[in-house]
Amino acid sequence: MWSIQNILVYLALAGALFFLVKKYFFKKNKKMNGSDCGDSGCSGCH
């Protein structure tokens, strides 16, 4: 029988795994324009 504590633990685990997969495996490629950055190429680009 499932207790409410087990259900909450599995939901938290699923949420954490979803966050990690989304963060590391579904990165969007951001194209940087020259006008977005400073003169040195990367100053101000964070």
Task: Give a quick precis of the structure.
This protein has 46 residues and is mainly α. 48% of the residues lie in helices and 0% in strands.
Oligomeric state of the chains in view: single chain
**Arithmetic mean of pLDDT:** 79
Instruction: Please give the number of β-strands.
Output: 0
Low-confidence segments: none
Sheet/helix structural class: mainly alpha
Radius of gyration: 20 Å
Please indicate the percent range of residues in DSSP E strands (runs of 2 or more). under 5%
Helix count equals 1
Helix content: 40-55%
3D shape: rod-shaped
* Main sheet makeup: none
Terminal Cα span:
49 Å
List SSEs in N-to-C order: H
Protein name: FeoB-associated Cys-rich membrane protein
Keywords: Membrane, Transmembrane, Transmembrane helix
Transmembrane segments: 6-25
Organism: Sunxiuqinia dokdonensis
Produce the secondary structure layout.
Blueprint: H1 4-25
